[in-house]
Design brief:
Keywords: Membrane, Signal, Transmembrane, Transmembrane helix. This protein is mainly α. The protein has seven helices and no strands.
Length: about 200
């Protein structure tokens, strides 16, 4: 039996062995985690996009609450300037900075919602009610996206540390563990409540 024939006969087994070492499964798991992170960023951006209209609506009724309104605007600016690229997903410090910026914005929004309680007409404004509903939905989607990302990261990290995928992860991919996205403020793992008691309808200003 020639050497060439033997190599051809062994080829399927070699391919199976390489595949079993994570040649395909490791990058697939990595891309899945990156895709879930993109979902996280998209939802935070969706929240940021709601804020200018929210601030403008509140200002129409509560212009004297300047400190709170400015606080929300400044927190939004910091949050939108703090971004994470896929290459930084193995950097816990970068993810912490991102989380702190988003947590600060969430805290500023919570303070704004406390202020709103003092203005019954604002609470019944149709534009505000629509923004409130959108914000609440976005906060829920942020919670889900963050959970899905952390689950994808856990699956990826487990794969690159577990035999036989760990071999391919190290030899072929130089894979590094990804960092989970931890909450940075109390209660941040659950969506903040932004709803208010039902109020009688009022004309839009």
């Amino acid at each position: 039996m020639s050497v060439l024939f033997r190599l051809k006969a062994l080829a399927p087994a070699l391919l199976l062995a390489v595949s079993a070492c994570g040649l395909n499964s490791v990058p697939t798991a990595e891309e899945a985690a990156k895709a879930r992170w993109a979902d996280v960023q998209n939802e935070y951006q969706r929240r940021a996009d709601l804020i200018p209209n929210l601030v403008a609506t509140v200002q129409g009724y509560a212009a004297q609450e300047k400190d709170v309104l400015v606080g929300v605007t400044e927190a939004r600016a910091r949050a939108t300037q703090t971004n994470i690229t896929p290459a930084q997903l193995n950097d816990p410090a970068a993810l912490q900075r991102f989380g702190e910026a988003q947590g600060a914005l969430g805290s500023a929004l919570s303070r704004l919602m406390v202020v709103v309680e003092k203005y019954p007409e604002l609470k019944s404004n149709t534009n505000f009610l629509a923004l409130q509903s959108q914000l609440e939905g976005t906060e829920n989607r942020i919670t889900i996206a963050r959970r899905d990302y952390n689950e994808a990261v856990q699956a990826y990290n487990t794969r690159i540390r577990t035999f036989p995928d760990a071999i391919g992860a190290k030899v072929f991919h130089g894979a590094q563990p990804m960092a989970p996205f931890q909450a940075t403020t109390a209660g941040a793992e659950s969506a903040p409540k932004v709803s208010f008691p039902a109020a009688a309808p009022a004309a839009t200003r």
